[in-house]
Automatic annotation (TrEMBL):
InterPro entries: Catalase, Catalase_AS, Catalase_clade2, Catalase_clade2_helical, Catalase_core, Catalase_haem_BS, Catalase_immune_responsive, Catalase_large_C. Residues 1-10 have a biased composition (Basic and acidic residues). The lineage of its organism: Bacteria, Pseudomonadati, Pseudomonadota, Gammaproteobacteria, Moraxellales. SUPFAM superfamilies: Class I glutamine amidotransferase-like (SSF52317), Heme-dependent catalase-like (SSF56634). Its cofactor is heme. It is an enzyme of class 1 (oxidoreductase). Residues 36-424 form the Catalase core domain. GO terms for cellular component: cytosol. Its EC number is 1.11.1.6. This is Catalase. One of its GO terms (molecular function) is heme binding. Residues 1-27, 415-441 are annotated as: Disordered. The keyword Cell membrane does not apply.
């Protein structure tokens, strides 16, 4: 039993529209069934097509062959134009503190009830078959099947967005996607068109600096924050509106990779984040997030030093604290990737009564785009009937026909108002969704941008200045890396100008790394403010000292000590880590005569896949590995990525002595098991300047 969702409760049942007969239920398995065609005709031979004689031509009459191949030919649907690569999981939402003073939405007022949900994480720029670890924003989309209709919180792992107005979205995406003439680079912002566009759009500066930070290379999907980004409204019984921003805070804290690791993981395991999610759920180590809200009134918002309707601005948690009112637990990996993760269709316009939109112009544009894209991606306005998309509460309307209609509506009445059929659905003023009756200014029609959206530098400056020194070095190095891939000199120069407005130290570091002169900074459209620092935007600062969710690699070989392997395994697992045995071969004979099965051969499991490494090998093995570059890289990379290393005498003598590895407090001999376990909970960032020329 993974949850206490009452699956008999009609509100929680799968797609009642589809499921009446049971056959198309989402998790239907047909044990021991006979293979049939789509029409239910049993198939006697699934290996040979129908031919005129054993060596004769195939016959057109072979309806089994034609049906099978035709289906196969149509197995692909258009991938998402953005966020194409993703992975998801089922789980539940549980409210721990009622928000009834603020909203009538049952999902935010009924505590203790577990409501089913589906969450999909994604990268933005790459194709469906790209890697998991590019430098990119991560999508964080949650579909909660509430008893009052589906609620989709379609957010990202960063609290702000690149642009202020939806009309700029196609240009932003065209600029970051592979350049249209050459078809590359894949899943990368480090190219001319992206930096050309962003350097001409100062509003992108805030999201850009987040993109250059460690937040853009998460260690695990389980270690990312999620944000609804825009301000929404909560509406209470009295019809009073309160603004709200939604937050997801990971139980495992925020943790990230180093850039060099991310690059190497792309080759070693392109499915790195997806595999981690799958393995954690399979192991019963269910990923969990706290659900939080920032609540504020219109009057409070008017005092903020920025406009909260501008999606390029975050509301510092130090200014409006995040109130934790619930949690999300992911406890079931999809049964079928296509049917669920691929066909799930999120729309920010999916909201239950009691929650409403704000006038954020980016949100307003999104309300159109998602429904529209689902029509082309899933091919029919009936996509809402797919099991993964259908509400789990009763639903009824007069929409009919279209491609792939799965419901069979009865009766002659498919319109409203009507007086012929009392069984048909009717509108309900009491239960129904109603928009907040906001008093609007007498605006003048025009293509305008509010002057209150004009400050593009104060928040990126706050972000940079709030980081630890190691994080600032990562940001400067990321800018240098990305701009180093830009061939067009005037684009690099223009970008350096913006960096001066963000922070002169940052601009200098990047210019020095690129060997360029600093230009004149562009004139800001609004005065740049020195806002108070916000530690809540750090990454390393928010990384907890824990082994929960982390993975340790233990290198063993012929003759290794079973006893010592056992000690490290036990200590690591007791602290919450998973352990993988790595060896030169798939199996090895240990000192006590037993054989150990390695999870990975060293050539296939570089140390970038582990958070800390241990080496327990005999001299003969060490001597051999000392001539193998994959083994040398194993230690060198672990050291360069600031990880804890526990070494045996043979490793020290034959391998470490050949490498530029200094014995600091994170490089410890085998007998210091406790010290290693403590170190493995974090990284020694102070080592980084010794091993890498950071900008
Ligand atoms: Fe978007 C997908 C998040 C702005 C248009 N978006 C998509 C997904 C996420 C986001 C997480 C993937 C959902 C899934 O897993 O299926 N998008 C955001 C956030 C934004 C944002 C947090 C700004 C705050 N998006 C945005 C704008 C537009 C779009 C301004 C268009 C005007 N987004 C789309 C889309 C996608 C999409 C084209 C592609 C696939 C899909 O919708 O289902 O409609």
């Amino acid at each position: 039993m993974k949850d206490n969702i009452d699956h008999k409760d009609p509100a929680n049942q799968m797609n009642p529209a589809v499921g009446e007969g049971g056959e198309t239920h989402q998790r239907a398995d047909k044990d021991g069934a006979v293979l049939t065609t789509q029409q239910g005709v049993a198939i006697s031979d699934n290996q040979n097509s129908l031919k005129a004689g054993p060596r004769g031509p195939s016959l057109l009459e072979d309806f089994i062959l034609r049906e099978k191949i035709t289906h196969f030919d149509h197995e692909r649907i258009p991938e998402r134009i953005v966020h194409a690569r993703g992975s998801g999981a089922h789980g539940y939402f549980e409210l721990t503190e009622s928000l009834e003073d603020y909203t009538t939405a049952k999902i935010l007022t009924k505590t203790g009830k577990q409501t089913p949900l589906f969450t999909r994480f994604s990268t933005v720029a790459g194709n469906k078959g790209s890697k998991d670890t590019p430098r990119d924003v991560r999508g964080f989309a949650v579909k909660i099947y509430t008893e009052e209709g589906n609620w989709d919180i379609v957010g990202n792992n960063m609290p702000i967005f690149f642009i202020q107005d939806a009309i700029k979205f196609p240009d932003l995406i065209h600029a970051v996607k592979p350049e249209p003439d050459r078809g590359f680079p894949q899943a990368a912002s480090a190219h001319d068109t992206f930096w050309d566009f962003v350097s001409l759009s100062p509003e992108t500066m805030h999201n850009l600096i987040w993109l250059m930070s460690d937040r853009a290379i998460p260690r695990s999907l389980r270690m990312m924050e999620g944000f609804g980004i825009h301000s929404y409204r909560l509406i209470n019984k009295e019809g009073k509106s309160t603004f709200v921003r939604f937050h997801w805070k990971p139980k495992l804290g925020v943790q990230s990779l180093t850039w060099d690791e991310a690059v190497k993981i792309s080759g070693a395991d392109p499915d790195y984040n997806r595999r981690d999610l799958f393995e954690a759920i399979e192991a019963g180590d269910y990923p969990e997030w706290e659900f939080g809200v920032q609540l504020f009134t219109e009057e409070e918002a008017s005092q903020f030093p920025f406009d909260h309707l501008d999606a390029t601005k975050l509301i510092p948690e130090e200014l409006v604290p995040v109130k934790i009112v619930g949690k999300m637990v992911l406890n079931r990996y999809p049964d079928n990737f296509f049917a669920e993760t691929e066909q799930v269709a999120f729309c920010p316009s999916h909201l239950p009564p009691g929650i409403d939109f704000s006038n954020d112009p980016l949100l307003q544009g999104r309300l159109f785009s998602y429904l529209d894209t689902q029509l082309s991606r899933l091919g029919s306005p009936n996509f809402a009937q797919l099991p993964i998309n259908a509400p789990k509460c009763p639903f009824a309307n007069m929409q009919q026909d279209g491609h792939m209609q799965m419901q069979v509506p009865k009766g002659r009445v498919m319109y409203e108002p009507q007086s012929l059929d009392p069984s048909k659905p009717r509108e309900s003023e009491k239960q129904g969704f109603s928009s907040f009756p906001e008093q609007l200014d007498d605006g003048v029609k025009g293509r305008v941008r509010s002057e209150s959206f004009a400050d593009h530098y104060s928040q990126p400056r706050m972000f940079y200045r709030s980081q630890t020194p190691a994080e600032q070095a990562h940001i400067a190095s990321a800018f240098a890396f990305e701009l180093g891939k830009v061939d067009t000199a005037h684009v690099r120069t223009r970008m350096l100008g913006h960096l001066i407005n963000i922070d002169e130290d940052l601009a200098n570091r990047v210019a020095t790394a690129l060997g360029m002169e600093l230009p004149k900074a562009p004139e800001p459209r609004a005065p740049i403010q020195d806002l108070p620092k916000s530690p809540a935007v750090q990454t390393i600062g928010l990384s907890p000292k824990t082994l929960q969710g982390r993975q340790i690699g233990i290198l063993v070989g012929e003759g290794s000590s079973k006893d010592q392997i056992g000690k490290f395994e036990k200590a690591a697992k007791a602290a919450g880590a998973t352990v993988k045995i790595v060896a030169p071969s798939k199996e090895a004979l240990l000192d006590d005569g037993t054989r150990i099965q390695a999870d990975e051969r060293i050539a296939g499991a570089p140390s970038v896949l582990f958070d800390a490494v241990v080496s327990i090998i005999m001299p003969d093995v060490a001597k051999k590995l000392a001539k193998d570059s994959s083994a040398l890289d194993w230690f060198n990379d672990a050291y360069n990525h600031c990880k804890a290393i526990a070494y045996c005498p043979a490793t020290e003598k034959h391998i470490l002595s050949k490498l530029p590895v200094e014995k600091d407090e994170f490089v410890t001999p085998l007998d210091e098991v406790d010290a290693f376990i403590e170190n493995a909970k974090t990284r020694l960032w102070e080592r980084e300047p010794k091993v890498r020329d950071l900008a």
